[in-house]
């Protein structure tokens, strides 16, 4: 068996993998091999297309962890989005395993656990900015009072 190195650029009609052996064994292996390769190459190709369309001056971040088809799908999508040209992921574990920059959000359940801003007793300052105060200012600017 031989194949292209993970993350290498390939072109149409260029084989990704070559497998040799007894026909019966190869027929049994065909489906699992395709299953392992097809999703990864699909995600990587789509990420590369998105990167090309938005250009280098904009960031592309992968946020698909909660909607992925299981933990394996989530890890695969995070890894191959990055290989396809994305700048980061919200998946902490993929960041840890593959060295992908982690860019994130916070759990909606955390936000929804507060009835009002008055319940937030210990709001933090980040780089000298009162985050709660600034968030409320943005909210006001958007007309969400």
Summarize the structure.
With 145 residues, the protein is mostly helical.
Describe this entry's structure for a reader.
By secondary structure, the chain is mainly alpha-helical. The protein folds into two domains: 2-105, Aldolase class I (TIM Barrel, Alpha-Beta Barrel), CATH 3.20.20.70; 108-145, no CATH class. The chain has five helices and six strands, in the order ββαβαβααββα. It has helices at 23-54, 70-83, 92-98, 108-112, 131-141; strands spanning 2-3, 17-18, 61-62, 88-89, 125-126, 129-130. Strand 5 and strand 6 form a beta hairpin. Helix 1 crosses helix 2 (70-83). The mean pLDDT is 88.
Q: Classify the helix fraction into a percent range.
A: 40-55%
Helix count equals: 5
CATH architecture of the largest domain: Alpha-Beta Barrel
* Gross morphology: elongated
Highest CATH level, the class of the largest domain: Alpha Beta
Strand order of the largest sheet: 1-2
User: What series of H and E elements makes up the topology?
Assistant: EEHEHEHHEEH
State the major sheet: 2 strands, antiparallel
Output the radius of gyration.
21 Å
The count of β-strands is 6
Distance between the termini: 62 Å
CATH topology heading of the largest domain: TIM Barrel
What value does the average pLDDT take? Answer: 88
Structural class: mainly alpha
Strand content: 5-15%
Q: Could you name the ranges where pLDDT drops below 50 across 5 or more consecutive residues?
A: none
> How many distinct domains?
2
- Corresponding CATH superfamily of the largest domain: Aldolase class I
């Amino acid at each position: 068996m031989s194949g292209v190195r993970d993350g290498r650029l390939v072109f149409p009609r260029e084989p990704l993998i070559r497998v040799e052996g007894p026909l019966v064994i190869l027929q049994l292996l065909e489906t699992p091999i395709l299953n392992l390769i097809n999703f990864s190459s699909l995600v990587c190709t789509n990420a590369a297309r998105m990167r090309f369309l938005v250009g280098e001056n904009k960031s592309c971040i992968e946020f698909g962890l909660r909607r992925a088809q299981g933990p394996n799908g989530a890890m695969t999508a995070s890894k191959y989005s990055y290989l396809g040209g994305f700048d980061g992921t919200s998946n902490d574990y993929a960041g840890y395993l593959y060295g992908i920059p982690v860019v994130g959000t916070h759990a909606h359940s955390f936000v929804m656990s507060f009835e009002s801003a008055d319940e937030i007793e210990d709001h933090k300052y980040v780089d000298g900015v009162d985050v709660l105060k600034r968030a409320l200012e943005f909210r006001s600017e958007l007309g969400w009072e």
